[in-house]
Design goal:
2 copies of one chain form a homodimer. By secondary structure, chain A is α/β, with parallel strands linked by helices. Chain A has 11 helices and 16 strands. Chain A is 39% helix and 17% strand.
C-alpha cells in the first residue's frame, strides 16, 4: 500500500487521498501553501497524519527562503506556522506538531545546522507516530478475540497516521497475533473515508472487510455481528470526551444500546488536557456541497445543509482509550493524567 | 409538485423518482412488465405508492389481452399478479393491493363491465390512500408543537404514497394548522431518498428543511434540535414491530437515548397481522453497487458489501403508531387489533 506521507531528499510528497482508491497520485509540496491546501481539501487527513504533514510543512516553508538557515526570517516562519495552523480547527495534533517544531526552531535558532535539526524533528514526529501506533496496537489487540466482528467508522488506518494506524493498527496487531478479525467499515458520509480508504487499506492487507452504509450499523449490531467498535480520535480532552469524524457519536450510542464495547485508539499526541470537556472542542463545519452529493455527483435538492465534520462522544460511552501508554479505563479525569505521566 | 402516479384514460404513468430532483420524467406503463420494472428499480417506491402502482399494474396487465374482458384468461391474469407480487418482498401493501384487486376480479368475473370495475377499484385504492394520509395527518399533527424540529428518515411523503404522505403528511397537516415545523431530513443512503425526494417535496411546499447525512442525526439530537422523529413503514406486524427503510432502527435507538418520541405514520393497509413479530418480515437485500457508490459514481474500494433495503424497529422503541384510525399507543398487541376493528 502506498505511504500517505513521503519525505525524501528534503522534499515532501503527500498521497492525494481524495483520489483513492481509483488513482494513486502524490502531490509534490514545493511550498507550504501546497501543504495547507492538501490539509484543507483532505488530500492528507486523520489527526496524526495532519500533525506529521504540518511538521514537514514547516520545513518546506522554511526552505522557501533557501536552504541556508542564516537567511531565514522569523516573520516568514511565523507566517508559515500561522498558515498551517489555520487549515483545520479540530484535530489537535496539528497544533501539537507545530508547537514541537517551533521549540526546535527556537532552541537551535542561529545554529548552522538548523535545517537539518528541523527536518530531523519532523522525521522524529513521523517515526514516533508509527512507533506509537505499533505500541497501541499491541495493547489494543488484547481487547479483541479470535473470530470477532469489529466495526469501525471513517479511516483511522495507515493512511490517517504516519503509518500502521490507530484503530486499524489495533486490528492489524490482532491479525498479526493470529486472530481472525472481520471488519465492518461504515462508509462514513459525506467524504466516504470508510468506503474509499478503510476498505482499500484492509483489502490491501488481506484483512476481511465488509462495507456498509452508516445507517446499517444498528442492524448489524442487533444481529450480533459486532463484538467491538474501534475508532480513532481527532482530539480527546481531560475528562475523556472524544472528538472524531461525524457519525462516531451515533455509533457509540448504538454500541451502548447493544452492550458492545466502544474503544478509541489514539496516540497521546491527540490528547488535549487544556480542555476540560468536549463542549470546548471547536468543530469544523464544511461546505454544503459535500452533503448535497459527492464531488461532481450532486444529487440532492437545493436545500440548506448542516455539515459538521466531527462530533463529540461523551466519555460515558467510551469503554476504554487505547494509547501507546497502555489501555486507559474510566475514570478518565484521573486515569488520563496518570497514564500520560507514567 | 408532480404526482407520483397518474391514471388517465385507462393509462398508467409513473413518475421516475430515480431521476428526481434533476428531471421530471414519466414512464408510460404500456405493459405490466414495465410496472414491475419501475417497482424493482424504485422508479416508484414507498409502501403505499407500490400498492397503488401494483393495483393499476393489474389493470394494465389485464388490458394486454384487450379491453374486452370476455377475452381475458385466468392464466394470463395469474401470471400478471405473480409478476407484480415478485417485484419486492418487504412492503406488505403490494400484496394487500393485489389481493384486493383479485377479489374484485373474482367477484365480477364474466361481467361485461369487468374492466371498468377493476379500474375503479384501483382508483379507489389510490383515492382511499390519499384520504387515509389526510386523516392520519390530522391525528398526527396533534403530536407536534409550534416551533418543533422534526427528524425524518427516507421519504414517506406524497411521492411515497397516493399523495400527501404518511410521515410528511403529518408534518404537512401540522403546518396547515399554522404550526411552524423545521424538518431535518436524513439523506438516507444508499439510494438517497431523503436528499433527493424529501428535500424536494418539502422545498416545493415551502416547509423549512435542512438536509443532513445519516451519521449527523445523533449530534443534532444531542444539541436539542430534534423534538420528534416521524417515519413511515413498509410493514408493521401484530406486536408493533416496524419494518422501514434501512437506517430507521438506528434512528429509533438514538431517539430513545435522547428522550425524543419516535412516531411511525402508516395507513392500516401497511399493517400485517398475519406476522407475530418483526423477525418474520422478509428483508430485501439489494445489489452491492448501491453501497459502493451512487449510480455511475462508484467510489468505493472493491470489497464485499452488505445491503439490506430495510430494517426492523422493535415495538419497544416506538412511541406511537399514527394511522387513519387514530394514534395507537402500546401495548400494540392489544391496541392494534382494537384500532383496526374500531
Amino acid at each position: 500500500m502506498p505511504d500517505a506521507i513521503r519525505w525524501e531528499n528534503n522534499q515532501l510528497h503527500l498521497l492525494d487521498q481524495t483520489l483513492l482508491p481509483r488513482e494513486v497520485v502524490y502531490v509534490h509540496c514545493r511550498t507550504h501553501e501546497i501543504v495547507c491546501d492538501a490539509i484543507r481539501r483532505l488530500a492528507v487527513r486523520g489527526a496524526p497524519a495532519i500533525g506529521v504533514a504540518a511538521a514537514y510543512g514547516l520545513v518546506v516553508g522554511a526552505m522557501e527562503q533557501g536552504t541556508d538557515a542564516s537567511r531565514w526570517t522569523r516573520e516568514h516562519l511565523e507566517r508559515v506556522r500561522a498558515d498551517l495552523a489555520a487549515t483545520r480547527p479540530t484535530a489537535v495534533n496539528l497544533f501539537w506538531a507545530l508547537e514541537r517544531m517551533w521549540k526546535t526552531l527556537e532552541w537551535h535558532w542561529g545554529e548552522r545546522d538548523l535545517l537539518e535539526r528541523l527536518a530531523a524533528e519532523a522525521c522524529a514526529i513521523h517515526e514516533e507516530d508509527i512507533a506509537m501506533n505499533r505500541r497501541m496496537g499491541g495493547f489494543g489487540a488484547a481487547l479483541l478475540n479470535d473470530g470477532d466482528g469489529v466495526l469501525t467508522h471513517c479511516n483511522a488506518g495507515a493512511l490517517a497516521t504516519g503509518g500502521y494506524g490507530t484503530a486499524l493498527g489495533v486490528i492489524r496487531a490482532a491479525v498479526e497475533q493470529g486472530k481472525r478479525i472481520h471488519v465492518y467499515a461504515d462508509e462514513t458520509r459525506p467524504l466516504l473515508q470508510g468506503a474509499r480508504l478503510t476498505a482499500y487499506e484492509l483489502a490491501a492487507d488481506n484483512i476481511p472487510v465488509t462495507l456498509i452504509c452508516d445507517g446499517m450499523a444498528a442492524s448489524l449490531m442487533r444481529r450480533g455481528e459486532v463484538k467491538a467498535v474501534i475508532v480513532g480520535s481527532d482530539r480527546t480532552v481531560a475528562n475523556g470526551d472524544v472528538a472524531n469524524k461525524i457519525g462516531t457519536y451515533g455509533v457509540a450510542v448504538l454500541a451502548k444500546h447493544h452492550g458492545i464495547p466502544f474503544y478509541v485508539a489514539l496516540p497521546s499526541s491527540t490528547i488535549d488536557l487544556s480542555l476540560k470537556n468536549g463542549d470546548q472542542i471547536p468543530i469544523e463545519e464544511r461546505r454544503p456541497e459535500e452533503v448535497r452529493g459527492y464531488k461532481d455527483c450532486q444529487w440532492a435538492a437545493d436545500v440548506p445543509v448542516w455539515n459538521p465534520a466531527f462530533d463529540v462522544t461523551p466519555h460515558e460511552l467510551v469503554s476504554a482509550l487505547i494509547t501507546e501508554k497502555g489501555v486507559i479505563r474510566p475514570p478518565y479525569d484521573v486515569n488520563i493524567p496518570r497514564a500520560l505521566r507514567g
